[in-house]
Specification:
The protein has one domain: Rhodopsin 7-helix transmembrane proteins (Rhopdopsin 7-helix transmembrane proteins), CATH 1.20.1070.10. It has 10 helices and 4 strands; from the N terminus they run ββααααββαααααα. By secondary structure, it is mainly alpha-helical. A two-stranded antiparallel ribbon has the order 1-2. A two-stranded antiparallel sheet has the order 3-4. Helix 6 runs antiparallel to helix 8. The chain is elongated. Helices cover 67% and strands 5% of the residues.
Length: 383
């Protein structure tokens, strides 16, 4: 590999045949994106990257700025979610523990991964050595696995409440905590097996981050990436699509039944009924979960595309192309606190109580809301 460094014309390595072929001339002469990589990192660099010229420094600056901004919003937002949910008694429900687990995963990703990425963007290469490269990639793998698994737990809970209804088994705190432990153990398994020889972590194309090796075609690495993707992306995707198709059908059928019942009773709506209101709230929470899951897949699908393009269409994977996986994945960590802050009524109430400086509503509206809530409470007490 070292013989390739500084050579304007070289032969790109074909992973399929295990032989060198296809001559390539670097228009930038001796300069490649690998030039600034420290010597101890060279054994981890795939031959594919030696054909690309250095990235424009502007890209490193943009990535640095983006990650600093994202980290500030994500760390602040997810810490707020954890604080509000864990200090508000009314929010400490079994299903909300899944939300807290998701926030912990998002917080861990940005708190641990952003600082080294910012430093590397400044130096325009990975400067922390091979061991820290593996640790960095492992943290990204762990938090990514845990995020999608938590999404599956949230989906499963909504499916149980809305589709199964009274026929479903209520989620208990102990069951929720056990599920969360299983999720983290599951993520840890896929994260640490590369340290024991199944798969491996290597620098990505811009040389400032590390991830799974999606170029090597040896059976060991090939099997890991494909099985890893199957269990952490494909299966969850099919499950969530299945679950939400039934949730949407159940919501639609419920709304239709309510309209028909209201028509028979000669009223416009049955929303004053307690059970109907509870069902309506469950439906709103399902929409929140669906939005969050959709955002998660929007964030992680670029990595899925990059990984499989590296195996089957490596010619399209450039250093700039490889950046987008990291950008979209890290942007995902700011979606969840925003979605829950905007869409969860009890969360907003608790947030405004504990952090009133965040409230943008006028005092009159608050008074009216409190008055309305007081009236409803009084009516219920009389009833």
């Amino acid at each position: 590999m070292e013989s390739l460094v500084g050579s304007p014309t070289y032969e790109a390595y074909s992973r399929g045949s295990g032989a060198y072929e296809t001559s390539y001339t670097n228009p930038y002469g001796n300069h490649t994106v690998v030039d600034t990589v420290p010597e101890d990192m060279l054994p981890l660099i795939d031959a594919h990257w030696y054909q690309f010229p250095p990235l424009n420094p502007l890209w490193y600056n943009l990535v640095c700025f983006f990650n600093m901004t994202t980290a500030f919003i994500s760390i602040t937002g997810n810490l707020t979610v954890i604080y509000i949910f864990m200090t508000t008694k009314g929010l400490r429900t079994p299903s909300n523990y899944y939300v807290v687990s998701l926030a912990v995963s998002d917080f861990t990703m940005m708190f641990c991964m952003c600082p080294p990425l910012v430093v590397n963007s400044y130096y325009q290469t990975w400067v922390f050595g091979p061991t820290n490269c593996w640790i960095y990639a492992a943290i990204g793998s762990l938090t990514g696995c845990v995020s999608i698994s938590n999404m599956c737990l949230i989906t499963s809970d909504r499916y149980n409440v809305i589709v199964k209804g009274l026929g479903g088994t209520p989620l208990t705190t102990s069951r929720a905590l056990i599920n969360i432990v299983i999720v983290w153990v599951f993520g840890a398994f896929w994260t640490f097996v590369p340290f024991f020889g199944w798969g491996r972590y290597v620098p990505e194309g811009n040389m400032t981050a590390c991830g799974t090796d999606y170029f090597s075609h040896d059976m060991n690495n090939l099997s890991y990436v494909h099985v890893f993707t199957l269990y952490t992306y494909i299966f969850p995707l099919f499950y969530i699509v299945f679950a939400y198709s039934h949730i949407v059908k159940a919501v639609s059928d419920h709304e239709k039944q309510m309209k028909e019942q209201a028509k028979k009773m000669g009223v416009k709506s049955l929303r004053s009924d307690k059970e109907a209101m509870k069902k309506s709230n469950d439906c709103k929470l399902a929409k929140v979960a669906l939005m969050t899951v959709s955002l998660w897949f929007m964030a992680w699908t670029p990595y899925f595309i990059i990984n499989f393009a590296g195996f089957w269409h490596p010619s399209i994977v450039t250093p700039l192309f490889s950046i987008w996986g990291s950008v979209f994945a890290k942007a995902n960590t700011i979606y969840n606190p925003i979605v829950y802050a905007i869409s969860h009524p009890k969360y907003k109430t608790a947030l405004y109580q504990k952090m009133p400086f965040l409230q943008c509503q006028g005092g009159q509206d608050d008074d009216d809301s409190k008055s309305g809530a007081s009236t409803n409470t009084s009516a219920e007490e009389k009833a």
